[in-house]
């Protein structure tokens, strides 16, 4: 798409084309909006929680091990199944995506039955 729209390829500032400036600007706007929503939700959250979960070191180890294994798994799958020649990009992005996926999946299925008062 960028190749077809000449205006996106024009150099604007600091020898950067317009599409790069738009890409990074919109990414920063999106991250700022997510941070704002999280901040708003945290400011409205009730702080009178009486029950806190008891999490042992063994449970923490399993949690973070799952995230790390997910990172390795996603990276290996990406290297095997994608025909892109951008190995450096894959080796940077895939582990981060896999780690986030591992945290998300483990958090969704995390079961804390014991609580402390």
UniProtKB/TrEMBL annotation:
Alphabetical list of InterPro entries matching this protein: DUF4184 (IPR025238)
Transmembrane intervals: 21-41, 61-81, 87-109
UniProt key word Transmembrane: yes
Keywords: Membrane, Transmembrane, Transmembrane helix
Protein name: DUF4184 family protein
Organism: Paenibacillus anseongense
């Amino acid at each position: 798409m960028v190749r077809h729209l000449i205006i996106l390829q024009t150099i604007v500032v600091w020898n950067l084309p317009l599409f790069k400036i738009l890409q990074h600007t919109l990414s920063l706007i999106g991250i700022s909006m997510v941070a704002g929503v999280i901040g708003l939700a945290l400011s409205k959250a009730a702080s009178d929680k009486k029950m806190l979960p008891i999490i042992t070191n063994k449970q923490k180890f399993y949690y973070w091990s799952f995230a790390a294994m997910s990172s390795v798994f996603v990276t290996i799958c990406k290297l095997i199944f994608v025909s892109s020649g951008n190995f450096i990009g894959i080796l940077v992005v895939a582990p981060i995506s896999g780690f986030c996926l591992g945290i998300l999946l483990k958090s969704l299925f995390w079961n804390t039955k014991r609580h402390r008062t």
